[in-house]
Amino acid sequence: MIDEAREQVASLIGASPTEIVFTSGGTEANNFALLGVALGRGEGRGHIVTSQVEHPSILNPCRQLENMGFDVDLVNVDRLGRVDLEALENCLTESTLLLSLQHANSETGVLQDINEIGQIAKNKGVLFHTDAVQSVGKVPVRVQDIPVDMLSISAHKLNGVKGVGALYIRRGSPDLFSPLCGGGQEKKRRGGTENVPGIAGFGKSCEIAQKYLGSQEASRLSSLRDYLYKLISNQIAGVKIFGDLENRLPNTLNLGFEGVDGDTLLIGLDMEGVAVSTGSACSSGSGMPSPVLTAMGIPIDEINSSIRFSLGWSNTVAEIEKAVKVLVKTVSLNRIGNSPALSKKY
Fold it and tell me: What is the per-residue pLDDT for 179?
């Protein structure tokens, strides 16, 4: 059962089954890549490069490595959430052990150019890891076409169960230090008894995702996302979209509503049966403004007015239209001052 699932996961990203190591999720996979390289090759020193908009499962291990004596650099992003490639190239040095940059951002859906980024790393002789938790299964990701050495995946982002993930490690990569030492599971690369039911479900979800990517569903989802934005922008004034409009996931939309508090909007929509978020699910409840939008240079008032819409394969046009009706009413009721200039456009 595990072997079949390993083949299914590998097939989705164009890897060999022997290059897949099962983990407890995307967080462990990211930690495995960072700590595995640093502690396996760095001997207490070395240089790690990542970006300002990474997931906490990248940024927090980097902080730990800094405390252990490693040097860590965070590359800037522009107003659209794109990594500055020239600054990135200049940042990589002979002491750089690893470059870790996400493929897709969980809050904005912005896709980084991991082909070009991977080539930059390769030219510099630096190992390259990408957190592809948000992108695998939503857009084509084929490791044979990308100069990437490691890649993280999470089952529940593919409609699988929570608590299962995988790290792709390209054949021929240096041995990684294993943060979990145990009975030698996963060919001694990651100790601990495997979550067999979860892994089996993970494999099946990868098989289903591969079928979706080979059909018209991906383009349908993109059209649905664009239709959602069109309806909102036509019916509500003072709407801003955050992130690159061209290079992004087909299912994610991050919008700011002038004069409306995002948390208030979220509560109002939730009471009407519309599920949205005000940032990454992993930083919800922190009380702090989105570090991703902050790094993009978005003003604090716009950050506080933002909410994120995430669509799935099962969403329909009727659901989109219903959600927009609820949104129009909720914005109208909660907009500060109910300024006519910021009212609905009919």
Answer: 77
